[in-house]
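Repro:
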Amino acid sequence: MDNMRKKVLVMLLSVLGLSAHADEGMWMLSRVDGKTTEAMEGLGFRLSPSELYNTDGTSLKDAVVDFGDFCSGVVVSPQGLVFTNHHCGYSAIQSLSTPQDDILSNGFVARKHSEERPVEGLFVKFLVRTEECTGRVMTALDSLYRANPQEKPRHIDRDKVDSICTAIEADCRKHNPGMDCQVKSYYGGNAYYVSYYKVYSDIRLVFTAPETLGKFGGDTDNWMWPRQTCDFSVFRIYANADGEPAEYSPSNVPLQPKRYARVSLDGYRAGDYCMTVGYPGSTSRYLSSWGISERVNDRNVSVIQVRGRKQEVWKKFMDADRAVAIKYASKWASSSNYWKNSIGMNKAIADLGVIGQKQQLEQRIRDWYSEDADRQRRFGDMFAQLETAYRARRQMVYATGFFNETFMRGIEIYRVASKLNRLPQDADSAQVAATRESLTRFFKDYDARLDEATMAALLDNYRQQVTDAKCHPACYQVIDSLYGGDCAAYARDLFARTICKDTSCVSRLLADSTLRETDPALLYADALPDKIMELVGEQKEHNNIIHYNERLLTQALLEMEQDEPHYSDANFTMRLSYGFVQDYTSHGTHYDYYTNAQSLLAKAARQAEVEDYRLQDDIVGMLKEGKWGRYADKETGDLHLCFLSNNDITGGNSGSPMFNGRGELIGLAFDGNWDAMSGDISFDRDLQRCIGVDIRYVLYIIDRWGHADNLMRELGLR
């Protein structure tokens, strides 16, 4: 951005009184107010509010989908074509890959509808509308506490709230057949809304670039800038002949959506308006200083420590066998992503002094409520309650984190054994079939040798990290009494004797009921739920007190700053963030707001020393030709690959469309930046950046690498 444009932008934001909020916030589309709209218009937004969210007609919300409850996506054609990130489609691509048909490595192009590959278990959701139901929740909650009024000032039982929300969801589904209804809390439990969704479950893979492009940079560049990752994949939504959701059938047809987004070849400049619409997962911007400290010191530590150890084991097996590498590709990506995220979060929280900033805000709140007797009565005890409850549960939170990462997420044989333990000996045919089907999917991407080595390493690690014996599951008694404390010997014997290593386990269990008392994996798994429930149960009273007082803290802040706009924390519901394209300075080094093909080729030249920079020769040759055609940026003449904006995003936003001020698609969000990994806790407007893949790069690969003329015609570009 030139100096004049920068000055105008700063002046405008100052006039609007929104300089602190111009690019911060994950706003509910149904609750975008006039002040927020005014700020957006000042930055270059050219749509009306009804073109964003409209329940009586079509709007931009109708082009955005929740992709599988873990990512976002955007419909880009009148035939239900969906763009999302490559890493969002990664598990689907991996599930369709085999060593003989390795589309993960080689890429995939469907040149007609009959070649598109259905993905079992994948779905997308369209938001139909959102309605407030705070009154319904609070009225029901008041009635529950009427018999025990002494409980309410102390805490609100989250189980009671959850049961109320579940009842409202059931009632909404009853009165809206064919809809999925979800009630979520907002503003720390001070408000509740129900969202109505239409869910489509026949989703088919249409296009994916080779993994070297879709994951270029891998773990090396994850959460980093500059980036050159071509992070996109293409799917299609299918429906029945009436356009309604239906299970997979060859007779289903491509969905004709209510709205689709048009792609733009116009590009962007620094300072241009940029907007994301998607489904951000979870933030904790209103969390107390004690809650932040717990996140850093107790919760994140378990993710960092256990996943780091697990990934050491996995890597040895994956490097040695391509078949194992394919099986564990998606699991590795998921594990390592949040492992690195937790490392970066802890570092950023420390570097930016986030806890100190929160403590200063809490002191402001103390000063504010101390000025008024009624405020003192309502809020005066909450900080003492928070400090005491967080301190009381700390040991159990630490142990629970390590327990979950080790036993529930780390050692995979638990998933097999727990399914078998839940299968009745006299199970009917439907129960048997469902269990067998589930385990068949599991074993497709499972390696027993790897899991045995993982078990040995993680069992030993857990005992070293969680030294209190009361937090140890029953398997350690067996390890000590029968194996002399040798975790590797225990794991070796368990895997040698258990039936839980292949799909025959269901038949073998039903044929021999004595296995429930003798199989070592079944016995191992049977004891784990009781132990985790014991650890969690010890926290319940403290959890309720914390939940209630964190809610009060949010309420106090909203009252104190009632004249300022406030967004709710992300909670996997549709949100809008707005800002502008912006460059980036980190530790004294200035980075431009985009990367180009030359920067990709420079990294690819280092592929002998950095495996994550590997790129096929034909792709290198194509890029070296430099024939960008209409995909070249009009100002620089380069092929822009990725770009930066200051949009506020988090996990779940992956695949979110990045729109210009006219609502046209200019990119897909796929990552944040390392310096601002504290973003889930605290937004730093100087450092926080959203990394997106340029839609022109996406189209270039579809066209020039994939030669997918069918898709280019569908997109209106032929």
